[in-house]
């Protein structure tokens, strides 16, 4: 009987410690290069085990740049705002503004399906499209370093993720990257390759959602309150953007 009580006490103690660590993490901050405020839920690779959450691990590269490895893509961390729960990321291949593809293709579907992150604002995408025929309406969007004699590569910027049905039959989508940040004050989109290339140097914002990660792990699904804001482009065409607020968790009932 005494052994049974002891085992139960140990189990209960471990359970309480686990819950406490999940909801009340010990203070721990570190830095890498220009990012000086790395704290919960983030941690740097090699930090003590009590620092941050393993699902939000960053690392410092040899050039003292903070990197997030996300879905096999590598992104420089430009800023972290704990007040707004925003992290700004720049694809490592696009940060210098050179002509080329992102390190890895990333669309909004992968972000939403992950659970750890979400978009706080609407989700513009820059999409690399390869076409066997020239598209006259896209002549200002040719990617020169990727275009060959028998095909053209265009960089298209939209407020949504492109699908095969959205492009001509002679074209195919072969890479994309997220764009857009909380600093975007103008609803106008870049319209030329050079404009888009420069915009991608500034990266994109994600909001982290530890609550959604835990909700999905518990078998529930996460929902976000949505706020709409409206603006107009230069042609006075109405554009609606969506801002996503605090997440709420709905646990599924087991049968």
Automatic annotation (TrEMBL):
Biological or metabolic pathway of the protein: Protein modification; protein ubiquitination
Wall-associated receptor kinase C-terminal domain span: 168-227
Location within or outside the cell: Membrane
Coiled coil: none
Pfam families from the UniProt entry: GUB_WAK_bind (PF13947), WAK_assoc (PF14380)
Gene Ontology MF term list: polysaccharide binding; ubiquitin protein ligase activity; zinc ion binding
Catalytic reaction list: L-seryl-[protein] + ATP = O-phospho-L-seryl-[protein] + ADP + H(+); L-threonyl-[protein] + ATP = O-phospho-L-threonyl-[protein] + ADP + H(+); S-ubiquitinyl-[E2 ubiquitin-conjugating enzyme]-L-cysteine + [acceptor protein]-L-lysine = [E2 ubiquitin-conjugating enzyme]-L-cysteine + N(6)-ubiquitinyl-[acceptor protein]-L-lysine
GO cellular component terms, A-Z: membrane
Signal peptide stretch: 1-21
Membrane topology field: Single-pass membrane protein
Wall-associated receptor kinase galacturonan-binding domain span: 28-91
Keyword vocabulary terms for this entry: Glycoprotein, Membrane, Metal-binding, Signal, Transferase, Transmembrane, Transmembrane helix, Ubl conjugation pathway, Zinc, Zinc-finger
Primary localisation category: membrane
Family named by the database record: Belongs to the RING-type zinc finger family. ATL subfamily.
Name this protein carries in UniProt: Uncharacterized protein
Species, as recorded: Hibiscus syriacus (Rose of Sharon)
């Amino acid at each position: 009987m005494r052994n049974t009580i002891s085992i139960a006490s140990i189990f209960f103690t471990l359970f309480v410690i686990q819950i406490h660590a999940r909801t009340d993490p010990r203070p721990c901050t570190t830095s890498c290069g220009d990012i000086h405020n790395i704290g919960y839920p983030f941690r740097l690779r090699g930090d003590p085990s009590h620092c941050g959450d393993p699902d939000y691990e960053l690392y410092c590269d040899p050039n003292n740049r903070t990197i997030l490895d996300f879905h096999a893509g590598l992104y420089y961390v430009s800023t972290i705002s704990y007040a707004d729960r925003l992290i700004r990321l720049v694809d490592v291949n696009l940060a210098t503004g050179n002509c080329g593809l992102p390190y890895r293709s990333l669309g909004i579907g992968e972000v939403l399906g992950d659970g750890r992150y979400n978009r706080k604002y609407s989700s513009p995408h820059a999409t690399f499209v390869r076409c066997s025929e020239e598209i006259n309406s896209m002549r200002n969007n040719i990617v020169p370093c990727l275009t060959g004699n028998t095909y053209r590569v265009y960089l298209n910027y939209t407020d949504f993720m492109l699908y095969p049905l959205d492009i001509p039959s002679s074209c195919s989508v072969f890479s994309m990257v997220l764009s857009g940040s909380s600093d975007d004050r103008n609803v106008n989109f870049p319209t030329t390759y050079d404009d888009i290339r420069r915009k991608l140097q500034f990266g994109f914002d994600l909001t982290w959602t530890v609550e959604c990660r835990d909700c999905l792990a518990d078998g529930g699904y996460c929902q976000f309150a949505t706020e709409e804001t409206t603006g107009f482009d230069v042609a006075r065409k109405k554009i609606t953007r969506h801002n996503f607020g605090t997440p709420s968790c709905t646990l599924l009932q087991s049968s």
